[in-house]
Amino acid sequence: MNELRRTFLKVSGGAGALALATAAGVLKPAAVAAAEWNQDAFAAKAVADALKSLGATNLIESKDIVITAPEIAENGAVVPVAVASKIPNTQSISILSEKNPFPLAASFAIANGGEGYVSTRLKMGETSNVRAVVKADGKFYTAAKEVKVTIGGCG
Amino acid sequence: MAEPMKIRATLQGDVADVRILMMHPMETGQRKDSNGQVIPLHFIKNVVVTHNGKVVLDAQWSQAVSRNPFLGVRVKGAKAGDKIGVTWTDNKGDKRSDEVAVAASS
Hints:
The structure holds two protein chains of two kinds. Chain A has helices spanning 2-24, 29-33, 39-43, 47-54, and strands spanning 60-61, 65-68, 72-75, 79-85, 90-97, 104-110, 114-122, 128-136, 139-151.
């Protein structure tokens, strides 16, 4: 009985201290919230495997996802890609370059008023589809846009 | 030590348009140096963007993101003077955090 009480005290004390530390800004909330890096999804060499590791099944083609990327990218090392999702309650956006050695390029989790929009720059090995996968309300939506690459950016 | 980020946050209506430029080599692990040795993987794995301490974007990246990465995000419900913080962590455990205040629209 004593032991149980001790454990209880330890647990509640620990949680309390953590909450206090977060409130005081001592402990960066980032350190608490940073999700585990999805090793399986990023190591996948096929688009289907990467999607499976993301948990993205039953993909729905959606016109509410707008991918902004050049039709022809002269330099595959720097391809500007922006994804805007107009789907309500967008929870995450993942970007895949389908013919890269490892297709999954980036995965963004959105919360607390972050808008369904991300913009970044990717490396692309060769001409291929850039695919965006958006998770909203537990469902997965997708859209793709082809980018022609003149000089590959993976070598 | 990692170089500082360039962060710009400007208000457009009630949405803060945040642009972040990080300084990082983002090695893919596929390039070779002049001696034919493979340059090892070195890339940013995780980027966390916060708005007044609350996480608005938690990004996981692969080596496919370009060198000196750019990231653009939009934060709803922001006001001038709000704090936007950015922290990145790379695969070698190196970290960098920077913070800016949201500027009023010009």
